[in-house]
Protein backbone atom coordinates (compact mmCIF):
# COMPACT_ATOMS: atom_id res chain seq x y z
CA UNK A 1 0.00 0.00 0.00
CA UNK A 2 1.19 3.54 -0.80
CA UNK A 3 0.72 4.79 2.76
CA UNK A 4 2.84 1.96 4.13
CA UNK A 5 5.61 2.68 1.60
CA UNK A 6 5.71 6.36 2.57
CA UNK A 7 6.12 5.54 6.24
CA UNK A 8 8.63 2.83 5.46
CA UNK A 9 10.69 5.24 3.37
CA UNK A 10 10.75 7.72 6.26
CA UNK A 11 11.67 5.02 8.77
CA UNK A 12 14.44 3.60 6.59
CA UNK A 13 15.92 7.05 6.06
CA UNK A 14 15.76 8.14 9.70
CA UNK A 15 17.28 4.92 10.99
CA UNK A 16 19.95 4.68 8.30
CA UNK A 17 23.54 4.83 9.50
CA UNK A 18 23.99 8.33 8.04
CA UNK A 19 20.91 9.81 9.73
CA UNK A 20 20.71 7.98 13.05
CA UNK A 21 24.11 9.17 14.24
CA UNK A 22 23.18 12.79 13.48
CA UNK A 23 19.78 12.44 15.16
CA UNK A 24 21.17 10.76 18.26
CA UNK A 25 23.98 13.31 18.59
CA UNK A 26 21.47 16.17 18.30
CA UNK A 27 19.16 14.63 20.90
CA UNK A 28 22.07 14.02 23.27
CA UNK A 29 23.24 17.62 22.93
CA UNK A 30 19.88 19.41 23.07
CA UNK A 31 17.08 17.27 24.52
CA UNK A 32 16.54 16.44 28.20
CA UNK A 33 12.95 15.20 28.11
CA UNK A 34 11.93 11.97 29.79
CA UNK A 35 10.25 10.60 26.67
CA UNK A 36 11.24 11.03 23.04
CA UNK A 37 8.42 12.44 20.93
CA UNK A 38 7.84 11.98 17.19
CA UNK A 39 5.16 13.68 15.10
CA UNK A 40 4.06 12.17 11.79
CA UNK A 41 2.11 14.31 9.30
CA UNK A 42 0.05 12.69 6.54
CA UNK A 43 -1.32 14.55 3.51
CA UNK A 44 -3.35 13.65 0.43
CA UNK A 45 -2.41 17.04 -1.20
CA UNK A 46 -6.07 18.17 -1.22
CA UNK A 47 -6.66 18.67 2.50
CA UNK A 48 -4.64 19.95 5.44
CA UNK A 49 -2.18 17.38 6.78
CA UNK A 50 -3.38 15.07 9.54
CA UNK A 51 -0.84 14.99 12.38
CA UNK A 52 -0.29 12.22 14.92
CA UNK A 53 2.45 11.62 17.46
CA UNK A 54 4.07 8.87 19.45
CA UNK A 55 6.25 8.76 22.54
CA UNK A 56 8.80 6.29 23.84
CA UNK A 57 11.87 5.89 26.00
CA UNK A 58 13.94 5.20 22.90
CA UNK A 59 13.85 6.56 19.39
CA UNK A 60 12.79 3.13 18.12
CA UNK A 61 9.85 2.83 20.52
CA UNK A 62 8.76 6.42 19.87
CA UNK A 63 8.75 5.71 16.13
CA UNK A 64 6.85 2.47 16.62
CA UNK A 65 4.10 4.23 18.57
CA UNK A 66 3.93 7.16 16.15
CA UNK A 67 3.79 4.80 13.16
CA UNK A 68 1.01 2.79 14.78
CA UNK A 69 -1.00 5.95 15.36
CA UNK A 70 -0.34 7.03 11.78
CA UNK A 71 -1.68 3.75 10.39
CA UNK A 72 -4.78 4.03 12.58
CA UNK A 73 -5.36 7.59 11.33
CA UNK A 74 -4.95 6.47 7.73
CA UNK A 75 -7.52 3.73 8.18
CA UNK A 76 -10.00 5.76 10.23
CA UNK A 77 -9.85 8.85 8.01
CA UNK A 78 -9.31 7.04 4.70
CA UNK A 79 -6.24 9.16 3.95
CA UNK A 80 -4.64 8.56 0.54
CA UNK A 81 -1.13 9.51 1.62
CA UNK A 82 0.87 11.34 -1.04
CA UNK A 83 3.20 13.28 1.28
CA UNK A 84 4.43 12.22 4.71
CA UNK A 85 6.61 14.05 7.20
CA UNK A 86 8.28 13.08 10.46
CA UNK A 87 9.40 15.51 13.18
CA UNK A 88 11.50 14.45 16.16
CA UNK A 89 11.40 16.83 19.13
CA UNK A 90 14.97 17.89 19.86
CA UNK A 91 14.61 20.78 22.33
CA UNK A 92 12.00 22.04 24.79
CA UNK A 93 11.64 25.21 26.83
CA UNK A 94 8.83 25.88 29.30
CA UNK A 95 7.77 29.53 29.53
CA UNK A 96 4.98 31.57 31.03
CA UNK A 97 2.25 31.93 28.43
CA UNK A 98 2.49 35.71 28.71
CA UNK A 99 6.17 35.53 27.78
CA UNK A 100 5.17 34.36 24.32
CA UNK A 101 4.91 38.11 23.69
CA UNK A 102 8.67 38.39 24.10
CA UNK A 103 9.28 35.55 21.65
CA UNK A 104 6.96 37.09 19.05
CA UNK A 105 8.37 40.60 19.37
CA UNK A 106 11.95 39.33 19.04
CA UNK A 107 11.03 37.87 15.64
CA UNK A 108 9.28 41.12 14.66
CA UNK A 109 7.16 39.80 11.77
CA UNK A 110 3.90 37.87 11.67
CA UNK A 111 4.16 34.08 11.46
CA UNK A 112 7.88 34.21 12.27
CA UNK A 113 7.73 32.25 15.53
CA UNK A 114 9.35 29.05 14.28
CA UNK A 115 8.74 26.81 17.31
CA UNK A 116 6.05 24.30 18.11
CA UNK A 117 3.83 24.75 21.15
CA UNK A 118 2.74 22.16 23.72
CA UNK A 119 -0.01 23.08 26.17
CA UNK A 120 0.86 20.38 28.70
CA UNK A 121 4.03 18.58 29.75
CA UNK A 122 2.81 15.27 28.30
CA UNK A 123 2.34 16.78 24.83
CA UNK A 124 -1.30 15.67 24.74
CA UNK A 125 -2.14 19.03 23.19
CA UNK A 126 0.88 19.93 21.09
CA UNK A 127 1.28 21.48 17.66
CA UNK A 128 4.18 21.71 15.26
CA UNK A 129 5.39 25.16 14.22
CA UNK A 130 3.79 24.59 10.83
CA UNK A 131 0.44 23.81 12.48
CA UNK A 132 0.66 26.88 14.73
CA UNK A 133 1.26 29.30 11.88
CA UNK A 134 -0.80 27.33 9.37
CA UNK A 135 -3.92 27.76 11.52
CA UNK A 136 -3.39 31.28 12.95
CA UNK A 137 -3.08 29.99 16.49
CA UNK A 138 -1.23 33.17 17.47
CA UNK A 139 -2.60 36.69 17.18
CA UNK A 140 0.59 38.41 16.06
CA UNK A 141 1.33 42.08 16.51
CA UNK A 142 1.65 44.24 13.43
CA UNK A 143 5.03 45.68 12.50
CA UNK A 144 3.64 49.13 13.36
CA UNK A 145 2.57 48.03 16.84
CA UNK A 146 6.00 46.61 17.52
CA UNK A 147 7.81 49.65 16.15
CA UNK A 148 5.59 51.97 18.21
CA UNK A 149 6.11 49.83 21.33
CA UNK A 150 2.39 49.12 21.58
CA UNK A 151 2.93 45.58 22.89
CA UNK A 152 0.94 44.37 25.89
CA UNK A 153 3.41 42.01 27.55
CA UNK A 154 0.74 40.79 29.99
CA UNK A 155 -1.66 39.67 27.27
CA UNK A 156 -2.35 36.15 26.04
CA UNK A 157 -1.89 36.13 22.28
CA UNK A 158 -2.75 32.48 21.72
CA UNK A 159 -6.03 32.29 19.81
CA UNK A 160 -8.22 29.80 21.68
CA UNK A 161 -10.98 29.98 19.07
CA UNK A 162 -8.68 29.01 16.20
CA UNK A 163 -6.95 26.32 18.26
CA UNK A 164 -10.24 24.67 19.16
CA UNK A 165 -11.61 25.02 15.63
CA UNK A 166 -8.58 23.12 14.36
CA UNK A 167 -8.97 20.40 17.00
CA UNK A 168 -12.70 20.00 16.52
CA UNK A 169 -12.86 20.22 12.71
CA UNK A 170 -9.88 18.00 11.93
CA UNK A 171 -9.67 15.71 14.95
CA UNK A 172 -13.20 15.70 16.44
CA UNK A 173 -11.65 16.87 19.71
CA UNK A 174 -13.48 19.27 22.05
CA UNK A 175 -10.20 21.08 22.60
CA UNK A 176 -9.00 23.29 25.41
CA UNK A 177 -11.30 24.90 27.96
CA UNK A 178 -8.75 27.67 28.53
CA UNK A 179 -5.21 28.67 27.70
CA UNK A 180 -2.88 27.46 30.50
CA UNK A 181 -0.58 29.79 32.39
CA UNK A 182 2.51 28.08 31.02
CA UNK A 183 3.36 26.43 27.73
CA UNK A 184 6.29 24.54 26.26
CA UNK A 185 8.05 25.73 23.12
CA UNK A 186 9.86 23.05 21.16
CA UNK A 187 11.92 22.51 18.02
CA UNK A 188 12.27 19.43 15.87
CA UNK A 189 14.50 17.54 13.48
CA UNK A 190 12.40 16.98 10.37
CA UNK A 191 12.22 14.63 7.39
CA UNK A 192 9.84 14.75 4.42
CA UNK A 193 8.84 12.01 1.97
CA UNK A 194 7.45 13.10 -1.41
CA UNK A 195 5.12 11.26 -3.76
CA UNK A 196 7.82 9.20 -5.53
CA UNK A 197 9.13 8.13 -2.12
CA UNK A 198 12.27 10.28 -1.93
CA UNK A 199 13.10 11.52 1.56
CA UNK A 200 14.54 14.97 2.28
CA UNK A 201 16.24 16.16 5.45
CA UNK A 202 14.67 19.41 6.66
CA UNK A 203 16.34 22.45 8.19
CA UNK A 204 15.78 23.15 11.88
CA UNK A 205 17.15 26.71 12.01
CA UNK A 206 14.92 29.69 12.74
CA UNK A 207 14.52 31.22 9.28
CA UNK A 208 15.00 28.02 7.27
CA UNK A 209 12.91 25.89 9.62
CA UNK A 210 10.85 23.03 8.15
CA UNK A 211 11.95 23.25 4.50
CA UNK A 212 14.23 20.85 2.70
CA UNK A 213 17.98 21.06 3.05
CA UNK A 214 19.88 21.58 -0.18
CA UNK A 215 23.55 21.23 -0.98
CA UNK A 216 23.80 24.43 -3.01
CA UNK A 217 21.26 26.92 -4.34
CA UNK A 218 22.86 26.73 -7.77
CA UNK A 219 21.33 27.45 -11.15
CA UNK A 220 20.04 23.88 -11.57
CA UNK A 221 18.16 23.92 -8.23
CA UNK A 222 16.70 27.34 -8.97
CA UNK A 223 15.78 26.50 -12.59
CA UNK A 224 13.45 23.77 -11.33
CA UNK A 225 11.87 26.17 -8.85
CA UNK A 226 11.39 28.76 -11.62
CA UNK A 227 9.76 26.32 -14.01
CA UNK A 228 7.46 24.83 -11.36
CA UNK A 229 6.41 28.27 -10.10
CA UNK A 230 5.90 29.54 -13.65
CA UNK A 231 3.76 26.53 -14.47
CA UNK A 232 1.78 27.33 -11.33
CA UNK A 233 1.10 30.82 -12.73
CA UNK A 234 0.26 29.34 -16.11
CA UNK A 235 -2.32 27.11 -14.42
CA UNK A 236 -4.03 30.19 -12.96
CA UNK A 237 -4.96 31.59 -16.39
CA UNK A 238 -8.69 31.30 -17.07
CA UNK A 239 -10.13 30.73 -20.57
CA UNK A 240 -10.69 34.48 -21.01
CA UNK A 241 -7.03 35.23 -20.21
CA UNK A 242 -7.62 36.59 -16.72
CA UNK A 243 -5.69 35.10 -13.80
CA UNK A 244 -7.02 33.73 -10.58
CA UNK A 245 -5.55 36.62 -8.60
CA UNK A 246 -4.34 34.76 -5.53
CA UNK A 247 -5.07 33.13 -2.19
CA UNK A 248 -4.71 33.52 1.53
CA UNK A 249 -4.03 29.81 1.95
CA UNK A 250 -4.39 29.36 5.72
CA UNK A 251 -8.17 29.19 5.33
CA UNK A 252 -8.21 28.94 1.52
CA UNK A 253 -9.65 32.40 0.91
CA UNK A 254 -9.39 33.66 -2.65
CA UNK A 255 -8.10 37.25 -2.86
CA UNK A 256 -10.80 39.61 -4.03
CA UNK A 257 -10.31 42.39 -6.57
CA UNK A 258 -7.98 42.58 -9.53
CA UNK A 259 -5.08 44.80 -10.55
CA UNK A 260 -4.42 45.01 -14.27
CA UNK A 261 -0.84 46.19 -13.81
CA UNK A 262 -0.10 43.09 -11.78
CA UNK A 263 -1.84 41.00 -14.43
CA UNK A 264 0.49 42.53 -16.99
CA UNK A 265 3.72 42.06 -15.07
CA UNK A 266 2.80 38.44 -14.38
CA UNK A 267 2.73 37.73 -18.12
CA UNK A 268 6.44 38.66 -18.15
CA UNK A 269 7.17 35.53 -16.09
CA UNK A 270 5.30 33.33 -18.57
CA UNK A 271 7.24 34.83 -21.47
CA UNK A 272 10.44 33.84 -19.70
CA UNK A 273 8.99 30.37 -19.12
CA UNK A 274 8.64 30.05 -22.88
CA UNK A 275 12.17 31.39 -23.28
CA UNK A 276 13.46 28.66 -20.97
CA UNK A 277 11.40 25.74 -22.28
CA UNK A 278 10.42 26.54 -25.87
CA UNK A 279 7.12 24.80 -25.12
CA UNK A 280 4.64 25.87 -27.84
CA UNK A 281 1.74 24.55 -25.78
CA UNK A 282 2.15 27.63 -23.56
CA UNK A 283 1.45 30.08 -26.36
CA UNK A 284 -2.39 30.01 -26.64
CA UNK A 285 -2.98 30.83 -22.96
CA UNK A 286 -0.11 33.31 -22.98
CA UNK A 287 -1.71 35.12 -25.91
CA UNK A 288 -5.08 34.98 -24.15
CA UNK A 289 -3.58 36.79 -21.14
CA UNK A 290 -2.15 39.50 -23.41
CA UNK A 291 -5.44 39.85 -25.26
CA UNK A 292 -7.26 40.27 -21.94
CA UNK A 293 -5.06 43.29 -21.30
CA UNK A 294 -5.20 44.84 -24.75
CA UNK A 295 -8.82 44.23 -25.69
CA UNK A 296 -10.48 45.27 -22.46
CA UNK A 297 -8.08 47.46 -20.54
CA UNK A 298 -6.32 49.78 -23.00
CA UNK A 299 -7.97 53.07 -23.94
CA UNK A 300 -6.99 55.78 -26.43
CA UNK A 301 -6.98 59.47 -25.54
CA UNK A 302 -6.22 60.24 -29.19
CA UNK A 303 -4.93 58.44 -32.26
CA UNK A 304 -1.38 58.08 -30.94
CA UNK A 305 -1.73 58.08 -27.14
CA UNK A 306 -2.90 55.02 -25.20
CA UNK A 307 -3.27 54.21 -21.53
CA UNK A 308 -3.83 51.10 -19.46
CA UNK A 309 -6.94 51.74 -17.40
CA UNK A 310 -7.79 50.26 -14.01
CA UNK A 311 -11.52 50.10 -14.62
CA UNK A 312 -12.66 49.13 -11.13
CA UNK A 313 -10.90 52.16 -9.64
CA UNK A 314 -11.59 54.47 -12.57
CA UNK A 315 -7.88 55.29 -12.79
CA UNK A 316 -5.01 55.50 -15.24
CA UNK A 317 -1.71 54.74 -13.54
CA UNK A 318 1.74 55.56 -14.87
CA UNK A 319 2.95 52.13 -13.75
CA UNK A 320 0.26 50.40 -15.79
CA UNK A 321 1.66 51.81 -19.02
CA UNK A 322 5.18 51.08 -17.83
CA UNK A 323 4.77 47.36 -17.20
CA UNK A 324 2.67 46.95 -20.37
CA UNK A 325 5.50 48.32 -22.53
CA UNK A 326 8.04 46.17 -20.70
CA UNK A 327 5.96 43.02 -21.15
CA UNK A 328 5.10 43.63 -24.81
CA UNK A 329 8.72 44.36 -25.78
CA UNK A 330 9.79 41.21 -23.95
CA UNK A 331 7.22 39.25 -25.96
CA UNK A 332 8.46 40.70 -29.23
CA UNK A 333 12.06 39.91 -28.29
CA UNK A 334 11.34 36.28 -27.40
CA UNK A 335 9.03 35.56 -30.33
CA UNK A 336 11.02 37.66 -32.81
CA UNK A 337 8.04 39.67 -33.99
CA UNK A 338 7.07 43.32 -34.33
CA UNK A 339 3.33 42.77 -33.86
CA UNK A 340 3.07 45.09 -30.85
CA UNK A 341 5.37 47.93 -31.98
CA UNK A 342 2.53 50.38 -32.62
CA UNK A 343 0.93 49.57 -29.28
CA UNK A 344 4.28 50.07 -27.53
CA UNK A 345 4.67 53.48 -29.18
CA UNK A 346 1.18 54.55 -28.18
CA UNK A 347 1.64 53.43 -24.57
CA UNK A 348 5.07 55.06 -24.43
CA UNK A 349 3.48 58.27 -25.73
CA UNK A 350 1.09 58.02 -22.80
CA UNK A 351 4.07 57.89 -20.44
CA UNK A 352 5.61 60.97 -22.07
CA UNK A 353 2.32 62.81 -21.65
CA UNK A 354 2.69 62.24 -17.90
CA UNK A 355 6.30 63.48 -17.78
CA UNK A 356 7.63 66.97 -17.22
CA UNK A 357 10.17 67.22 -20.06
CA UNK A 358 12.28 69.77 -18.18
CA UNK A 359 12.61 68.04 -14.79
CA UNK A 360 12.11 64.42 -15.83
CA UNK A 361 9.48 63.98 -13.12
CA UNK A 362 6.31 62.01 -13.75
CA UNK A 363 2.68 62.60 -12.81
CA UNK A 364 1.33 59.32 -11.43
CA UNK A 365 -2.45 58.93 -11.64
CA UNK A 366 -5.27 60.30 -13.83
CA UNK A 367 -9.01 59.89 -13.44
CA UNK A 368 -10.83 57.86 -16.07
CA UNK A 369 -12.75 58.51 -18.28
CA UNK A 370 -12.10 62.26 -18.24
CA UNK A 371 -8.26 62.05 -18.01
CA UNK A 372 -8.23 64.72 -15.29
CA UNK A 373 -5.34 64.82 -12.78
CA UNK A 374 -5.85 62.73 -9.64
CA UNK A 375 -2.58 61.97 -7.79
CA UNK A 376 0.73 63.62 -8.51
CA UNK A 377 2.43 60.81 -6.59
CA UNK A 378 1.15 57.31 -5.75
CA UNK A 379 4.12 54.96 -5.35
CA UNK A 380 7.81 55.40 -6.18
CA UNK A 381 7.94 52.21 -8.26
CA UNK A 382 6.01 53.92 -11.06
CA UNK A 383 9.00 56.14 -11.84
CA UNK A 384 11.39 53.26 -12.46
CA UNK A 385 8.79 51.27 -14.39
CA UNK A 386 8.10 54.21 -16.70
CA UNK A 387 11.78 54.91 -17.30
CA UNK A 388 12.59 51.27 -18.01
CA UNK A 389 9.62 51.22 -20.39
CA UNK A 390 10.72 54.32 -22.29
CA UNK A 391 14.14 52.80 -22.86
CA UNK A 392 12.58 49.54 -24.02
CA UNK A 393 10.37 51.54 -26.39
CA UNK A 394 13.54 53.08 -27.83
CA UNK A 395 15.03 49.60 -28.22
CA UNK A 396 12.25 48.59 -30.58
CA UNK A 397 11.50 51.88 -32.34
CA UNK A 398 14.82 53.77 -32.28
CA UNK A 399 12.80 56.95 -31.83
CA UNK A 400 14.98 59.40 -29.90
CA UNK A 401 12.09 60.97 -28.02
CA UNK A 402 11.76 57.87 -25.83
CA UNK A 403 15.45 57.70 -24.96
CA UNK A 404 15.45 61.42 -24.20
CA UNK A 405 12.53 60.95 -21.83
CA UNK A 406 14.33 58.12 -20.05
CA UNK A 407 17.51 60.19 -19.76
CA UNK A 408 15.59 63.08 -18.22
CA UNK A 409 14.08 60.71 -15.66
CA UNK A 410 17.49 59.23 -14.76
CA UNK A 411 18.85 62.74 -14.25
CA UNK A 412 16.02 63.28 -11.77
CA UNK A 413 16.80 59.95 -10.04
CA UNK A 414 20.42 61.01 -9.54
CA UNK A 415 19.55 64.50 -8.30
CA UNK A 416 17.01 63.15 -5.79
CA UNK A 417 19.13 60.16 -4.73
CA UNK A 418 16.67 57.42 -5.62
CA UNK A 419 19.05 54.86 -4.09
CA UNK A 420 17.22 55.50 -0.81
CA UNK A 421 14.12 53.78 -2.19
CA UNK A 422 15.91 50.43 -2.70
CA UNK A 423 13.93 50.12 -5.94
CA UNK A 424 14.45 47.25 -8.36
CA UNK A 425 12.73 49.17 -11.17
CA UNK A 426 15.35 51.90 -10.94
CA UNK A 427 17.97 49.15 -11.32
CA UNK A 428 16.18 47.82 -14.42
CA UNK A 429 16.01 51.34 -15.88
CA UNK A 430 19.72 52.04 -15.33
CA UNK A 431 20.73 48.69 -16.74
CA UNK A 432 18.72 49.31 -19.88
CA UNK A 433 19.71 52.91 -20.53
CA UNK A 434 23.45 52.23 -20.13
CA UNK A 435 23.18 49.99 -23.18
CA UNK A 436 22.65 53.14 -25.24
CA UNK A 437 24.09 55.95 -23.13
CA UNK A 438 27.29 54.67 -21.46
CA UNK A 439 27.55 57.75 -19.26
CA UNK A 440 29.93 57.16 -16.29
CA UNK A 441 27.44 59.02 -14.06
CA UNK A 442 24.78 56.47 -14.93
CA UNK A 443 27.09 53.58 -14.12
CA UNK A 444 28.12 55.16 -10.83
CA UNK A 445 24.51 55.69 -9.84
CA UNK A 446 23.63 52.09 -10.76
CA UNK A 447 26.48 50.75 -8.60
CA UNK A 448 25.60 53.13 -5.79
CA UNK A 449 22.02 51.82 -5.90
CA UNK A 450 23.53 48.42 -5.14
CA UNK A 451 26.26 49.36 -2.68
CA UNK A 452 24.29 51.53 -0.28
CA UNK A 453 21.62 48.82 0.04
CA UNK A 454 23.79 45.70 0.30
CA UNK A 455 24.03 45.55 4.07
CA UNK A 456 20.28 45.99 4.57
CA UNK A 457 19.48 43.37 1.95
CA UNK A 458 22.03 40.93 3.38
CA UNK A 459 20.43 41.11 6.83
CA UNK A 460 16.78 41.13 5.71
CA UNK A 461 14.84 38.37 7.50
CA UNK A 462 11.77 38.37 5.25
CA UNK A 463 11.98 36.91 1.76
CA UNK A 464 11.13 40.28 0.22
CA UNK A 465 11.21 39.33 -3.44
CA UNK A 466 12.25 42.45 -5.35
CA UNK A 467 15.64 42.70 -3.66
CA UNK A 468 17.06 39.86 -5.76
CA UNK A 469 15.80 41.65 -8.88
CA UNK A 470 17.67 44.78 -7.78
CA UNK A 471 20.84 42.77 -7.14
CA UNK A 472 20.75 40.74 -10.34
CA UNK A 473 19.98 43.72 -12.53
CA UNK A 474 22.77 45.62 -10.79
CA UNK A 475 25.10 42.69 -11.50
CA UNK A 476 24.32 42.90 -15.21
CA UNK A 477 25.16 46.61 -15.18
CA UNK A 478 28.38 45.97 -13.26
CA UNK A 479 29.39 43.28 -15.73
CA UNK A 480 28.71 45.57 -18.72
CA UNK A 481 30.81 48.30 -17.12
CA UNK A 482 33.75 45.95 -16.61
CA UNK A 483 33.47 44.56 -20.13
CA UNK A 484 33.24 48.06 -21.64
CA UNK A 485 36.53 49.21 -20.19
CA UNK A 486 34.97 52.45 -18.92
CA UNK A 487 36.82 53.65 -15.83
CA UNK A 488 34.94 55.23 -12.94
CA UNK A 489 36.41 56.12 -9.55
CA UNK A 490 33.47 54.57 -7.69
CA UNK A 491 34.72 51.09 -8.62
CA UNK A 492 37.72 51.54 -6.32
CA UNK A 493 35.57 51.19 -3.22
CA UNK A 494 33.13 48.66 -4.64
CA UNK A 495 33.25 45.28 -2.86
CA UNK A 496 32.28 42.80 -5.57
CA UNK A 497 32.86 39.84 -3.24
CA UNK A 498 30.29 41.14 -0.76
CA UNK A 499 27.99 41.87 -3.71
CA UNK A 500 28.22 38.24 -4.85
CA UNK A 501 27.76 36.93 -1.30
CA UNK A 502 24.66 39.05 -0.83
CA UNK A 503 23.20 37.72 -4.07
CA UNK A 504 23.75 34.11 -3.04
CA UNK A 505 22.48 34.61 0.51
CA UNK A 506 19.38 36.30 -0.87
CA UNK A 507 18.74 33.53 -3.41
CA UNK A 508 19.17 30.86 -0.74
CA UNK A 509 16.98 32.65 1.80
CA UNK A 510 14.17 33.31 -0.69
CA UNK A 511 13.56 29.57 -0.87
CA UNK A 512 11.93 30.06 2.54
CA UNK A 513 9.14 31.76 0.61
CA UNK A 514 8.64 28.83 -1.76
CA UNK A 515 5.71 26.52 -1.12
CA UNK A 516 7.56 23.25 -1.04
CA UNK A 517 5.14 20.39 -0.29
CA UNK A 518 6.50 20.08 3.27
CA UNK A 519 5.23 23.60 3.96
CA UNK A 520 2.11 23.64 1.76
CA UNK A 521 0.76 20.47 3.41
CA UNK A 522 -0.30 22.45 6.49
CA UNK A 523 -2.50 24.88 4.53
CA UNK A 524 -6.22 24.22 4.08
CA UNK A 525 -5.97 23.26 0.39
CA UNK A 526 -2.31 22.38 -0.26
CA UNK A 527 -2.75 21.54 -3.93
CA UNK A 528 -3.92 25.11 -4.68
CA UNK A 529 -0.64 26.66 -3.56
CA UNK A 530 2.12 24.04 -3.79
CA UNK A 531 5.03 25.19 -6.02
CA UNK A 532 4.00 28.83 -5.70
CA UNK A 533 5.72 31.54 -3.68
CA UNK A 534 4.22 33.11 -0.58
CA UNK A 535 4.71 36.14 1.65
CA UNK A 536 4.89 34.73 5.18
CA UNK A 537 4.37 37.98 7.07
CA UNK A 538 1.21 38.69 5.04
CA UNK A 539 -0.45 35.48 6.24
CA UNK A 540 1.32 33.36 3.61
CA UNK A 541 -0.28 35.40 0.83
CA UNK A 542 0.06 33.93 -2.65
CA UNK A 543 -0.62 36.59 -5.29
CA UNK A 544 0.29 36.55 -8.96
CA UNK A 545 2.64 39.53 -8.76
CA UNK A 546 4.41 38.13 -5.69
CA UNK A 547 5.13 34.94 -7.61
CA UNK A 548 6.24 36.96 -10.64
CA UNK A 549 8.79 38.98 -8.66
CA UNK A 550 10.30 35.85 -7.11
CA UNK A 551 10.62 34.32 -10.56
CA UNK A 552 12.05 37.54 -12.04
CA UNK A 553 15.02 37.71 -9.70
CA UNK A 554 15.62 33.98 -9.86
CA UNK A 555 15.55 33.95 -13.66
CA UNK A 556 18.49 36.35 -13.91
CA UNK A 557 20.21 34.54 -11.05
CA UNK A 558 20.33 31.36 -13.12
CA UNK A 559 21.81 33.27 -16.06
CA UNK A 560 24.65 34.75 -14.02
CA UNK A 561 25.29 32.13 -11.32
CA UNK A 562 28.47 30.94 -13.00
CA UNK A 563 29.81 34.51 -12.91
CA UNK A 564 29.00 34.88 -9.22
CA UNK A 565 30.28 31.50 -8.05
CA UNK A 566 34.05 32.26 -8.17
CA UNK A 567 33.59 35.04 -5.61
CA UNK A 568 32.09 32.66 -3.03
CA UNK A 569 34.47 30.77 -0.74
CA UNK A 570 33.85 27.22 0.43
CA UNK A 571 33.55 28.47 4.01
CA UNK A 572 30.90 30.97 2.96
CA UNK A 573 28.97 28.22 1.14
CA UNK A 574 29.08 25.95 4.18
CA UNK A 575 27.88 28.71 6.50
CA UNK A 576 24.88 29.55 4.30
CA UNK A 577 23.92 26.10 3.06
CA UNK A 578 23.83 24.65 6.58
CA UNK A 579 20.69 26.71 7.25
CA UNK A 580 20.17 29.46 9.82
Question: How would you characterize the overall build of this protein?
Answer:
With 580 residues, the protein is an alpha+beta fold. It has 2 domains: 2-201, no CATH class; 219-577, Alpha/alpha barrel (Glycosyltransferase). Helix content is 49%, strand content 13%. It has 21 helices and 15 strands. It has helices at residues 2-14, 17-30, 59-77, 100-107, 129-134, 143-147, 160-171, 219-235, 260-277, 283-296, 318-335, 341-353, 381-397, 400-415, 424-433, 440-459, 466-484, 496-509, 517-520, 544-564, 570-577; strands at 36-43, 50-56, 83-96, 116-118, 126-127, 182-193, 199-201, 246-248, 253-254, 298-302, 305-310, 315-317, 365-367, 373-375, 542-543. Strands 1, 2, 3, 4, 5, 6 and 7 form a 7-stranded antiparallel β-sheet that branches. The chain has a 5-stranded antiparallel β-sheet with strand order 10-11-12-13-14. The longest helix is centred in the last third of the chain and has 21 residues, at 544-564. The radius of gyration is 26 Å and the shape is elongated. The mean pLDDT is 96.
Amino acid sequence: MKEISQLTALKDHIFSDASISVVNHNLLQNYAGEDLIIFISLCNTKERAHVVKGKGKTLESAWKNAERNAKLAIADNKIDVIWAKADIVNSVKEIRTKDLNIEVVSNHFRNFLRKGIAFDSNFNFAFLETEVNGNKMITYYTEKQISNMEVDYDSVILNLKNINHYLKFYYDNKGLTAIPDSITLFTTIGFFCDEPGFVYDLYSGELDCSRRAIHTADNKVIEKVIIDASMYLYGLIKPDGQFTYGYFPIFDNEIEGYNIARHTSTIWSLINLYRMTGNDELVPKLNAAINFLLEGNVVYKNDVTAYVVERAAGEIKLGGNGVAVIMLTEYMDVFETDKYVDMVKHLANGILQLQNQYTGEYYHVLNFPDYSPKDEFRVVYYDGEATFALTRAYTFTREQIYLDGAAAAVKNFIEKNYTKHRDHWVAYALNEITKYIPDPRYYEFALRNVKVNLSSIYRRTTTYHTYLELLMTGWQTYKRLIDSGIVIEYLEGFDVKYFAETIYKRAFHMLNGYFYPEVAMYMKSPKKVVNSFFVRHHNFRVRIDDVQHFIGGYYFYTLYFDDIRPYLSDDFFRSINSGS
